[in-house]
Amino acid sequence: MPSPARALFRLACLLGLCAAFDIQLSTKCVPVPREMGLCQDVGYSEMRLPNLLGQRSVAEVLPSSAQWLRLLHTGCHPHARTFLCSLFAPICLDTFIQPCRSMCVSVRDSCAPVLACHGQSWPESLDCDRFPAGEGMCLASISKEDQYIYREFPKPTCQECPGPEDVASQKIVLESFCDNNFAVKVKLAKRKTAGGEQEYELEGQVEFINQGLLLPYDTRNLVQQWLLINENCAQKMTRSNRPMVYVMVGDVQRGNVMLNRLFHWHRRDSQLALAIRKWRHHKC
């Protein structure tokens, strides 16, 4: 560690901000592996082994940390990466810096429902009671102001998948636009990863029909996160290997984005196209 950083760390310890237990002689510093996608760009380049999960080698850390990447990409919590990397790849300092219990609870409460959506539970190894309760001896959670902003910021949630509708009259489409907060047109494709798994991703830009409470600069990422969380819906929406175009209609309630209607866009579906044109001048 560079001497200025070490001096800053010692000052933090004097102020009561260092970790809850000391490094043992058996621990060592190793570079954060480039293959460790979970903990890239976290602000440091070396980690301690064994880590806070008891893993003693990079060979142990890599596969177990990779399992959390999909959860991280859902955006379930703004500090999920910090929390997980403090356990899998703790920064190489004179003592371990643990996450606070409040950080664990905050991440768990936001991300556990996403795991549950995929039939998984919050692991016992991340039981929040194992972490220190004091805010001054660990990595604290986000501030109350940031928590408020995060709660109000539109974010996807786990839900039952609305069935894709192939045929719809102009009246049905316009009524659905009136009954909901937003409507967007997207092109969805599926592909296989190098590991043989299916991935679902958007092609091109999201086209707003009714923006509602969605944020224009973040909606594409929001829809991509919704697809990751609700993978069962993405499977139903990609019935062939060709990209599929949909009009997604839904609500934003207390910051949670819920999809309520899915209209499958066919090139020859004049009813849907006409309904979208009429919407510009339609009065609900």
From TrEMBL:
Q: What is its main location?
A: membrane
PROSITE patterns to which the protein is assigned, alphabetical:
FZ, NTR
Its placement in the membrane is given as: Multi-pass membrane protein
Leader sequence range is 1-20
- Transmembrane helix listed as a keyword: no
Which Gene Ontology molecular-function terms are recorded? G protein-coupled receptor activity; Wnt-protein binding
Q: Which family does it belong to?
A: Belongs to the secreted frizzled-related protein (sFRP) family.
Report the protein name in the record: Axszl
Keyword terms of this UniProt record: Developmental protein, Differentiation, Disulfide bond, G-protein coupled receptor, Receptor, Secreted, Signal, Transducer, Wnt signaling pathway
Q: Which GO terms describe its biological process?
A: canonical Wnt signaling pathway; cell differentiation; non-canonical Wnt signaling pathway
List, alphabetically, the InterPro entries matched: Frizzled/SFRP, Frizzled_dom, Frizzled_dom_sf, Netrin_domain, Sizzled_CRD
- FZ domain mapped to chain residues: 24-141
Q: Does the keyword Signal apply?
A: yes
Disulfide-bond pairs as recorded: C39-C85, C104-C128
UniProt domain NTR: residue ranges: 158-284
What is its subcellular localisation? Cell membrane; Secreted
Q: Name one GO cellular component term.
A: plasma membrane
